[in-house]
Structure formats: structure tokens, C-alpha cells
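SAMPLE LOG
Freezer: B-3
Tube label: C17
Construct: single chain, 71 aa
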Amino acid sequence: ETVAPLLLPMLMLGLFTLSAAAMVFIFFYQPFILYFDGQKKEAVTLVLQSFGCFAIVVVIVLGIVITVAHS
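STRUCTURE (predicted):
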């Protein structure tokens, strides 16, 4: 009985860790390779474009969630 209350926080922490690792791989792996290959401007541009696209997707999804929640 004491294991069940601990299971959910442990699973959520594991999910957060996996999500953070996936985001680091998606956003920084290719720019890291470009940067150390001598293509520094392209690496910075790719990071900024990635964050910009991600921010746009987050704003759209939040807008949809808020709109649906208020209807």
C-alpha cells in the first residue's frame, strides 16, 4: 500500500527526464555537430530557427487548449 503513492511521482520524473533528453537531442545535436565542424553561423541559425518553430507550435497548441476549455 505504501508503494502506490510513490509510483506516480517516480513515473512523472522519469517521463520528464526522458522528455528533456529527447529535446536536447532534437535541438542541440545537429547544431553541436555544425558548430564543431566550423560552421558556427549555421549552428546558431539552426538553434534559433528550432526554438522559434517550437515556440510557434507551443503558442498554437496553448491557444487551441484555451479556446476549447472556454467553450
